[in-house]
Amino acid sequence: MQTNEKYQIGLLHLAYLLISADGVIDQRERIALLKIKNDEKIPDARFDEFEKQISKLKEREIYQNGINLMSDCTNEEKLSAFMHLYKMSKADGRVHVKEVRLLLYSIRHVGIEFDDVVHRATQLHSANE
Questions:
Q1: Pairwise CA distance, residues 70 & 125, whole Å
Q2: 49-106 pLDDT, tens per residue?
Q3: DSSP letter string over 109-123?
Q4: Mean pLDDT along residues 114-119
Q5: Radius of gyration of the chain from Cα atoms?
Q6: Does the N terminus or the C terminus of the chain have fewer Cβ atoms within 10 A?
Q7: Are 65 and 105 in contact (CB under 8 A)?
Q8: For residue 101, which of 83, 114, 118 has the smallest C-alpha distance?
Q9: pTM, whole model, 2 decimals?
Q10: Given pLDDT bands bounded at 50, 70 and 90, which one contains residue 127?
Q11: How many CB atoms lie within 10 A of CB 118?
Q12: C-alpha distance from residue 55 to each of 2, 16, 62, 68, 129 (Å)
């Protein structure tokens, strides 16, 4: 598996956990997931396979798979992934405490800084305005 594929699949695992953290995947969160798919140029076949496999896994397995895949990525890929996740956590208009915990715990596990993620997200947001 190439690093790019690991990055894409790891990002999808963690994004799925994030959007399901509050127990409901609403339309805005689903749209945000599809935006990540498009932004990261994740092939339809890879995305479809992910969706099939994810339904068979427990939350803990999804988390562990995502963290293991992200741990093999470059720091740049990690920052990019968590920037997406940070922005996604606000997609439904509210940030659930479980989403915050997931973000902070995951960021610590992959060895990057939360401030760097926020900086990347706000920097990108400013550039798009």
A1: 23
A2: 999 999 899 999 999 999 999 999 999 999 999 999 988 887 666 777 888 888 899 9
A3: HHT--HHHHHHHHHH
A4: 89
A5: 13
A6: C
A7: no
A8: 114
A9: 0.86
A10: low
A11: 13
A12: 24, 11, 10, 19, 37
- Are 19 and 103 contacting, i.e. CB atoms less than 8 angstroms apart? no
| φ, ψ dihedrals at 41, nearest 5° | 55, 45
Q: Which CATH number fits domain 3-128: 3.30.420.10, 1.10.238.10, 3.40.1000.70, 1.10.3680.10?
A: 1.10.3680.10
Length in residues, the chain = 129
Alpha helices in 55-113 (DSSP H): 59-71, 75-88, 97-110
CA 20 to chain centre: 12
| Gap between the Cα atoms of 13 and 58, Å rounded | 11
